[in-house]
């Protein structure tokens, strides 16, 4: 879905770099979520 949306944004705006805003935003959002909510696996059997 992300490449389709980025391509649509570029076609809508006419600027080839406009489509990079959404993928960069998603990457930053995932980085923040990944650093705030890491799962603790110290005493959990993860080899299920």
Mind telling me the C-alpha Rg?
17 Å
Q: Biggest β-sheet: count, sense, barrel?
A: none
Strand content: under 5%
Number of domains: 1
SS-derived structural category? mainly alpha
As a percent range, the share of helical residues equals 55-70%
Described by the principal axes of the CA atoms, the overall outline is elongated
Low-confidence stretches: none
The SSE order reads HH
Distance between the termini: 31 Å
Defining key terms:
48 residues; mainly alpha; elongated
Describe, in plain words, how this protein is organized in 3D:
- The chain has 48 residues and is an all-alpha fold.
- The protein has one domain.
- The protein contains two helices and no strands.
- The protein starts with a helix and ends in a 12-residue tail after the last helix.
- The mean pLDDT is 87.
What's the helix and strand layout?
Layout: H1 2-13, H2 21-36
Quick recap of the structure?
With 48 residues, this protein is mainly alpha-helical. It is built from 2 helices and no strands. It has one domain.
């Amino acid at each position: 879905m992300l490449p389709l949306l980025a391509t649509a944004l570029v076609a809508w705006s006419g600027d080839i770099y406009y489509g990079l805003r959404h993928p960069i935003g998603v990457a930053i959002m995932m980085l923040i979520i990944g650093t705030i909510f890491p799962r603790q696996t110290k005493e959990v059997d993860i080899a299920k």
